[in-house]
Every structure is written in structure tokens, then in C-alpha cells.
Amino acid sequence: MRRIRLWAIGASLKTEPVEILEELSRKVTASGIDRLFGAASSAVGLLSTCNRVELYLATDEPPSAHRMVDWFIEANQRRKEGIYVFEGGEAVRHLMLVACGLDSMVAGEAQIQLQVKHAPILGGEGRARKAVERLFRSAYFTASTVRKEVALSAKPTVGLVAVRAIKSKLSARAKVILIGAGKNAKAAAEALSDEGFSDLYLVNRTPEKVKPLAVTEGSIHPLQELPALLNVADAVIVATSSPYYLITSDMLKQRPRKDKLIIVDTSLPRNVEPSLKDHPSVELLDLDDLAAYVTESISQEQREKAEEIVNGATTRFTSWMLESEVEPVVSWIRARAEEIRREEALQALRRLTGDRRRDELVIGALTSRIVNRLLQTPIDRLRSLADEGLAEPYEKMLKELFGADG
């Protein structure tokens, strides 16, 4: 039986600009992975967020890993320099660090933990799928342990950084549009409230979904009203998962040109038309630009303690992987031993009479037969190997397995 091995391949905002990562996120999809790794011997976990696009492969076929790397490079416009590949324990450790937020643009951010929990596991069955499912589950629980023991704050998010960028350019009297209703939007709404911004326009395709975000005095609007709101706003935060642009250059044709509109797009794929960077009345900030507004949110001591927990979890997972390789053999040995025990027990029960001395002989014979049947095949094989002069390594192995001295 071949060993199951783990690989990770990915790209992130640390290694690629947002426009490259955006295109990669559109190409590396569940359907594409299913076509590539449809075999039962391979399973893949897909982690695609606003920070990264990563695949985690478990397979007993090394060529599958090479195929994954080639496919990923092709999806990344044949750019190799922005791609990272990890194997074995390094792949495990990387996902653990990611789940803890230690590899995020905003260090320590909590949203990635839930994204790891809900990441789709594609293809495969049996040992390969079990390995990927356990890997993601272990990463999630490791992140929970880190948050509890290291006391990481849940505050740091991309939404918070977006508000920080706006605050550096505008006063709290500014009119701000917030588009979205997810976790990033919620974090941005709370940060806006904390910073004293009260003139807010909360916009979403389904207005009811943004009601929980109304932490300050703000008005709620459907998406259809966005073009009119853009004419009066000073800033916009876009935090959605829309597959297309929500703000385009055509929507700003009626906007007065006296003041620039600051737009912060925290989405991937981007939800604001990139050409607006050249618009005379717009200052557009995307995820690449937000890096300049990120401040260190965890201390060196916290990071070191978190990495210590991650290293321990990585060691435990890799040990489980190694142990799981022999589990099918252990299961077979146990099943075979149980089969022998049942057969011999049934025969012995037929011979029991209630006479103590006679029954003691029956039970003694029962245990002898069980021992003989369990050991007969390996002993015969060892003797056969000895006849061929090949027994020495097997002899040493058996002594090791049975704990024999000398």
C-alpha cells in the first residue's frame, strides 16, 4: 500500500499583486479541480480568500502533485515566481499558520479561521480525503487554541484597515458609503462607529441584511440607489463577494469634481472597476494599497507563543499521518485474529461438558490452537526465508515488533 503524502501550493498578496491574484481566483475553481483530480486516490482542499488562493493535496500518486503544480502555474499566467509549494510537514505547518491569521496581511485576523473551517474538500475518498479533512479540522482547532492561549484580539481585519485609510484622509464628518453585509462589512461598520463616523449610507442588494450593521446613525439603501449616493459621498468602502464590478466609471459621470471620492475596495475579485485609479475625481485603494495602512497587531512574544503551539500541532498531525499508514495492516491483523478466535471458540464450546477437569483440557487446547494458528504463517515464512539466506532483516524486525531481548 502506497503512502499518502501532502502538498500545498498557493499564492497570496504577499507574493502576487492583486490583479494577478484576482485572475488566479477566477481560474482555480472547484469544477477545475474536480476535472484534474477526479481519481479516488487524490483529494484537494481549496482555500480562496481576499488574501490568498491555495490548494492542499493528499495523494498516493506523486505525479498528481506535479500535475497540480503545473496546472496552478498555468492558471497563474505561467508566473512561477509568485507561487509557493510545501510538502509534508511544511504543508501542514503552513495551513496551521494561515488558520491562526499569522500569515495574513493583517496579522492575527480572525476571519480566516472560519474560512478554513468551511473550505471545500474536493474529489477523493478513503485515506486521501480523510487526510485532507483531518488537516483542515486540525488547523481550525489549532487556531482556536492559539486565540485562547495567546489572547489574540478578534479586532484586526481588512475592514478595520479600510477605515484607518479613510480616517487618514478625511475627518469623522465625512459621508461614508459602506457596501456589503458580511464579516468585513461588519468589522468596517464597527470601526467607523468607534472612530466617530456617523453619517453613513449602508448599501446592499438586500437591505434587510445590513440592518445588523447599523451600529451608528446611518441610513439603509438598496443597491439601485448607489449611483445617486456616489454623487454626495466623500468615501466608499466596498466589502462584498460580488463576481462583477459594483462601481464603474459610468456611475461617476454626474459627480461634482470639486472633491475627490475615496474608494476602498477590500474585495477579491475586485468589485470596483480598476480604471477608476486614473479617474480625476477618484482616489481608489485596493488590497495592495491597504498594505501601507497595516500596523502590527500582535507582539513578537505573542507570535512566538503562537508558533510554538502551531509547531506542536504540526508534529502531532504528521505523527498521525505516519501512524495511519499502518492502520489498514493493523485492522487486517485484528480481523484475522478475531476470525481465528471465533472459529476456535465455537469448536471449544461444543466440547464443554460441565466436568471441570475435562473442560480445563478443552480450554487449554483452545488457547494452544489459537496461538498456533496466529503464528504458523509468519513462522513458516521466516523459515522459508532462512532457507534462502534472507531471514536476518526479518528476524530483527520480528524481535523489534514483539519486544524480544537480544
Helix content: 40-55%
Helix count, per DSSP?
Answer: 13
CATH architecture of the largest domain: 2-Layer Sandwich
Order of helices and strands: EHHEEHEHHEHHEHEEHEEEHHHH
- State the end-to-end CA separation: 31 Å
Structural class: alpha/beta
Summed up, what is this model?
With 406 residues, this protein is an alpha/beta fold. It is 49% helix and 14% strand. The protein is elongated.
Characterization of the model:
- With 406 residues, the protein is an alpha/beta fold.
- It has three domains: 5-154 and 298-325, Beta Polymerase, domain 2, CATH 3.30.460; 158-293, Rossmann fold (3-Layer(aba) Sandwich); 332-394, no CATH class.
- The protein is 49% helix and 14% strand.
- The protein has 13 helices and eleven strands.
- A six-stranded parallel beta sheet has the order 8-7-6-9-10-11. It has a five-stranded antiparallel beta sheet with strand order 4-1-3-2-5, with helices on both faces.
- Strand 6 (176-179), helix 8 and strand 7 (200-204) form a beta-alpha-beta unit.
- Helix 4 (89-99) packs across helix 11 (300-351) and helix 11 packs across helix 12.
- The protein starts with a strand and ends with a helix.
- The model has no long low-confidence stretch (mean pLDDT 87).
